């Protein structure tokens, strides 16, 4: 009975892991897919061309019917002319396509590369030609959370963003199936490889170098696909909570250590300065008198303070001189 429960629990955990894996793949595909692939700018122009050609074909068929057989001939030629002019106008209107300023159209004729067209009005013949528009602006792809283990066996979760653009539309379409998804997947793999070869301290302190290294690795491959990596930025580095608490305690201990060292150095400097001041006063006969006057002046002129000098300074000096003389005589 216990074995059956364990097997059921393991099956449930495996199903949950598979569901999470599918969600991660769907998220990656969603992040890698573009928001807008092509802006249709020629739809209005195609409608105008269709209406003009259809109307012109209808007028021509009407004139031919009236010239050939009068009103009876018009009843036969007009429906045929309307149908034929409709089909011709529909085909010719679909020849005209419009590419935006930032788009380039990769034209394939009967499956072979025919040319790179755009921006502006381009001619694409249906049935014979097919076109794929490529956005040459700076594109942005999100790198979802990646679970990475550093060189010192610390699990971290890292996410980032990729900034890149297409500089060769022909190679971006012909060389790789989906250049956006390929760049995203290669960037994720490179991020794992680069961060996995570093320690946690290097990851936290050398973010700029890590970003540059990942961008260089991805650029070496993406350039073969007709794309250029502008930059890769790391957005967030997430660590386990217990590791965060230990790092916080370590930082607190380091700050306390620096504070203790700073206080000890201050006490040492103060003691050295006091010793130097005492030596200076001992070597100068009038220094002690000036110090005494400064102390009295520092008490302030307030009426609440009353200063009484019981023994003049000269008397103290005389007593010191007598003590020195007696010590010499003895």
What are the main properties of this structure?
Tetrahydropterin Synthase, Chain A; 3-stranded antiparallel β-sheet; 330 residues; alpha+beta
3D architecture notes:
With 330 residues, this protein is of the alpha+beta class. It has a domain at 138-243: 2-Layer Sandwich (Tetrahydropterin Synthase, Chain A), CATH 3.30.479.30. It contains nine helices and eight strands. It has helices spanning 2-32, 43-93, 169-174, 179-196, 200-205, 207-222, 241-283, 287-298, 313-329, and strands at 96-99, 103-109, 112-117, 120-123, 129-135, 139-149, 155-166, 227-238. It has a three-stranded antiparallel beta sheet with strand order 3-2-5. Strands 6-7-8 form a three-stranded antiparallel beta sheet. Strand 6 (139-149) and strand 7 (155-166) form a beta hairpin. Helix 1 crosses helix 4 (179-196) and helix 4 (179-196) crosses helix 6.
Strand arrangement, major sheet? 3-2-5
| Assembly form of the protein | single chain
Helical proportion? Answer: 55-70%
- How many DSSP H or I helices? 9
User: H/E element string?
Assistant: HHEEEEEEEHHHHEHHH
Radius of gyration: 44 Å
The biggest beta sheet is recorded as: 3 strands, antiparallel
CATH class categorisation of the domain at 138-243: Alpha Beta
Beta strand %:
15-25%
Total number of strands? 8
The gross shape turns out to be elongated
Average pLDDT rating: 80
Q: Could you please say which CATH topology of the domain at 138-243 applies here?
A: Tetrahydropterin Synthase, Chain A
